[in-house]
Structures are given as C-alpha cells and as structure tokens.
Specification:
alpha+beta, 232 residues, single chain, eight-stranded antiparallel sheet, 4 helices, two-stranded antiparallel ribbon, disordered N terminus
Length: 232
C-alpha cells in the first residue's frame, strides 16, 4: 500500500509543478503571508504524513481566501454582438472621381481595400494604410453592373490614352444603411495601375451576391500621391 502511495506521489508532484509553472505569469500572491500550517502541510505531504486530499484542501484554502489569485482561464472567445442596427452600420462604398472634365459618381462597390507598399508587422495582410507609404495604393472590387458604365468608359480611356490624361482625385465615401456618410477617404493625384474582369468560382469563398455560386467580378487598382481621412 505504501509503495502504491509513493508511486502516485511523484505523479501528483509533477502535476503540481506544471500547475505552478503554467500560472507563473498570471497567478500572484497577495500581501497576506501564507499561514504556517499550509507550509507545514507541504512538508508533511512530501513526507507522506498527510494524504493527497488534505494537501489539495490547503491549496484550495489559499485560493479561496485570496492569498493566491489564479484567474479563470479563457476557454472560448466569441465576438460581442453589436447593438447597432443595419441602418447604422457601414453598408456600402460610393466612389466619386474628380479633377476631370466631368466628375463621375459611381455607387456601390462591394470592396475597398488598401494595399500598402510598406510592410508592417501590425498589418500582416496589408489591409490598412501605412502612414509611411509615399504613394498610397488601393483597389476597388465589385459585381459589374450597368450603373457603372461611366466608370468603365473612364477605365477604357485611361487604358488607351493614359499618357495624355491628367492624374485625377478620387473620394471613397463609406455609407451607412440610410446612405449617410460615415467617413470619406480622399485620394489625390491618382492613376489606374491595373484593371480586370474575372470569374470568382470558389464556392466556399465569400460571395458579394450572397448566393453560394460562382460570380463575375471586376477589380481596379489605383496608385495615388496623397490621402486624407475626413469625417462629416
């Protein structure tokens, strides 16, 4: 019987060591000193003078009376539910191209994303504007639609006569569900660097249409000289 206890004790001792090491960065003792009887329990337990259960009770005493504080570990992380309505949340992008003969308002691009040319450890996916960027770059993506015909004409002119055209400005309004402006990204002295229409046929990829099926999209990339963020 004594041999069995001796075999179990090293195992429990290892578990207790793991427990202490595992919480060494988060558990801390309060200003209250550890009672002598608890210290004696540790000595007696190591000498097989008290049972495992009695020793565990002494550890529970330290935790319950706040002598040792052990935060409850986080086992699950969930996103908090927003209290905003769909009308109050950002819902779409309105794009206006200016500094040309006739400004072109283009509604409802599904995606607007910065494509930083300066890598940052805080933005491994390069989705944010890096303040160190000399020339901010970004792209717009959407489902091709008839309401963007003016925009497609502008892209066509830029492809054919880019050397003869002046750089343009482009404002991207972030709109809520009511169509009110939440913020505006204003880019100056821009040019189109690439454009393409393609088939997005990965069915488990997020679809702009909301339908789990392939869809045709287009993407336009821009490079500019300056950018500013404005709020109404």
């Amino acid at each position: 019987m004594e041999s069995s206890l001796n075999e179990k004790k090293p195992i429990l001792l290892i578990l207790l060591v793991i427990f202490v090491v595992g919480f060494s960065f988060t558990a801390y003792a309060s200003d209250t000193s550890i009672p002598n009887w608890v210290k004696n329990n540790a000595k007696w337990w190591s000498e097989n003078s008290i049972s495992d259960a009695d020793y565990v009770k002494s550890l529970e005493y330290l935790i319950m009376h706040g002598i040792i504080n052990v935060p409850i570990p986080i086992t699950e992380v969930t996103a908090a539910q927003t209290i905003l309505t769909e009308e109050e949340q950002a819902q779409s992008f309105k794009v206006t191209i200016s500094n040309i003969v006739k400004p072109i308002p283009v509604h409802f691009f599904e995606k607007f994303e910065m494509t930083s040319t300066t890598k940052s450890s805080n933005d491994p996916l390069d989705k944010m504007y890096n303040f160190r960027d000399v020339n901010p770059t970004f792209f717009l993506e959407s489902l091709p639609s008839v309401d963007k015909k003016q925009f497609y004409k502008f892209v066509s002119d830029w492809m054919d006569r880019r050397d003869l055209l002046n750089e343009f400005n482009i404002d991207i309004d972030v709109l809520d569900g009511r169509g009110d402006i939440i913020q505006t990204w204003s880019f100056t002295k821009c040019e189109i660097t690439s454009y393409g229409t393609y088939l997005q046929d990965i069915t488990n990829f997020y679809q702009f249409s909301g339908v789990k099926d392939s869809e045709i999209r287009d993407r336009t990339s821009f490079s500019c000289v300056g950018v500013s963020l404005k709020t109404p």
